[in-house]
Every structure is written in C-alpha cells, then in structure tokens.
Hints:
alpha+beta
Amino acid sequence: MARAGVLTREFHGIYRLGAHRLAEAERLVLACAATRGRISHESAARYWGYTELPELPLHVTVNRAARAPGAPWLQVHSTTRWADHGVARDGVLVTKPLRTLLDIARQPIGDTYVTGYVDYSISHRLFTVKQVERFLTAGCGSMKGVERLCRIVVWSADIDSSAEAEIVRLLMA
C-alpha cells in the first residue's frame, strides 16, 4: 500500500493515508508517540498560545539516552535534564512554559521573539518574573541561553497585558 501511494510512512510502524495531510494537533500527537518525547522550543511556545514564532519544523525534545526517529517536518533535540520539565495537556506531552522559554532563548531567533514570549506568558499568567528568576538561578546557571534571558528579563516587569508590556519596553528604551 505504501508503494502504491495509498499510505505514507511517517515513522517505523506509523503510517498515514497518502492523501490525508496531517493537522497540527495530529502532528503533535504523532511526534510525541513516535519519539516518546515532548513538544518543545518554538513549537511549545505556539502550543502555549504564543503564535508569533514560525511554524515549521515541529520541535521535540527527547531523553538523550533515547533513539528518536526523524522526519522532514520534525526537529529532534536531546537533553539529560529530562525530569520535571514536561506536562501532559490534551493528550500531548509539552515542555512547561519556563523550560520552553529557556529552549527558545537558546535558538538563533531575534530577541523580539523571546521578549514577546516572556511578555505573552506573563500577561497570560503562565509564569511570573520571580518564577523566571528562580528558574534561572536553580540549576540552569551554566546552560546556554541563560545570559540572554537574564538580559531580557531585566526589561520585564509584572505586567497584565501585551499593551502594558509594550509600554514598559518603550519606557525602558
């Protein structure tokens, strides 16, 4: 059936109908099931509601000891700091908002995206500035991206909306 184009192989033992294009929710569930990992980085930020980041590829983080399959639409990351950074939500394993913040701060994207995610997350009560500060000092001090986050968090305050975040950023500038 795969040779005839009726089925398309996504991962070992996982196929989809050839003409059926995967919806975002289906891609998330499939990626978690196939890799035994968690949705992370920009994909997790979008999952938490911050839609300003680019969509492709889908990012997944797996335990470094795991052997994760790849796909053209999937970017696989590995970590040894696996415990307590993920949460199951709507049947999808996703990194927690604070871990997502660290992950995107480590990516080669502009500071405006990272700052936007911080502002969005604070205004939507995903985390507070104090929680970010505690997270950065509790065992993450030497990780890549921490210095960038420390610089960005200085510009943040306890805000209630994106408009207030923009005003604070303008006043600080």
